[in-house]
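Second attempt. The first submission of histidine kinase had a stray character pasted in from the spreadsheet, which I only caught after the job came back as garbage. Lesson logged: always re-copy from the clean sequence file. Corrected sequence (385 aa) follows.
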Amino acid sequence: MTAPLLTRRLRPVDLYIVDAVLAVAVGGLLCPYAALESPLHGGVREPLWVSVLVGMVLGLPLAVRRRWPIPVAVVISGSTAATLVTGVIPNFAAAAPAVAIGLSFYTVAVSTTTRRSLLSAAGCLALVSVALVLTAGDLWSRTGAVVYATVMIAPAWVIGWLLRERRALASRQSDQLVRQAATEERLRVARELHDVVAHTLSLIVVKAAVANHVAEADPREAGAALRVIEETGRTALTDVRRVLGVLREGTPYAPMPGLDELPVLAQQAAIGGVDVRLDVRREEPAGTVPESVGLAVYRIVQEAVTNVVKHAAPAACRATVTVTPDEVRVEVTDDGRRPVLIGGEGHGLIGMRERVALHGGEFRAGPRSDGGFAVTASLPYRVAT
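This time the job returned cleanly.
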C-alpha cells in the first residue's frame, strides 16, 4: 500500500505546500547570517528584527516560485545585491543567499522558454556581480567575486534547462508513440475492412451475375441468388459493425472470428462456385490459440479463398490448418487457372503478409508447379499460463 503513495505524482497543492515549507526553512537559515556581528569585516550592526526581515525577504519568495518564476528570481537577486552592498550580509558570508538564488533560477530555467530564462539569468547575474564587486577590495577579489556570482547562478540554471529539454524530448517521444499507435490502429482497421468487404463483394458479384443470367429463363434460380446476396450482405454489415465497434469504448460487439468460424467460411465459398475442403488438425498437446492469432488465421484463409473465387472459380480448393503447441500452420491450395496479373502483389497478399509478419511468422504465396496457386503461412504463439 505504501509503494503507490511514494511513487505517485504530487498534486499542485502538494507542490505549493512543499515550496512554502522550503521558503520558511531557507529564510530561517539566512537569518543567522544577516544577524552576524561583523563590524570588523565591513558589516553593520543592525537590529535583530532587520536581520529576520532580510532572511524572510530572501527566503519567502520561494513559496511562489512556480507561479511567478522570473519575478521571484529578480526579487531574490535584487535583495541579495542590496544586502551585500549595505553590509547586512557580510561579503565573506555571500554564500548564504546561494541556496535561494539557485532554487529561483532552477525554477526559471525549468518553467520558462530558453530565451526568457537566459535573459533573466544574465540580468540578475550582472546585478549580483556588481554588488560583489562594490564590496570587494582589490582587483583579484573583484574578479573572484564575479566568478563566484557566476557559480551561484549558472549551475542551477543549466540543471533546470537540461531538465526542461529532457521533459520536452520525453513529451515529443510520447506524442510520437501516440501517433504511431493511432496509425497502426488505422492500418489494422483498414486490413479488417478490406478483408470483409473484398470477400463479401466477391460473393455478391458472383451471385448477382448468376441472377442476371437466369432472371428470365429461371426466376426461381434468380430468386435463390438474390436471397444469397441478401444473406451475404447482412453478414458483411455485421462484420463491419464488429470491426468498427472496437474503436468505441463500451460498445458491445461479438467476438472476432477465429478457428471455430472456418467451416462457415468454407460454406460461403461454395456459394461462389469454389469447393473448399477444410481440414483443421490439432496436434496434442495443443494449447488455446490466442484470439489475435485465430483472427489472423481466419483472415488469411478468407483472403486466400476469396482470391480463388475472384480469379480461379470454378475450382477445387483445399485449406489445411494445423495447430501445434507453439504455432499454427496454414496451407490453402487450389487447382484453378488464373489470369496473368501484372504489377506484383495485390492488397490481399500484402495484407496477409503483414498479418503474418505482425506475429513473427513466415509467409509464402505463388503458383504451384502442377497448376493452381498455393498460400502457406506459419504463425507462432505462446500459450498463456
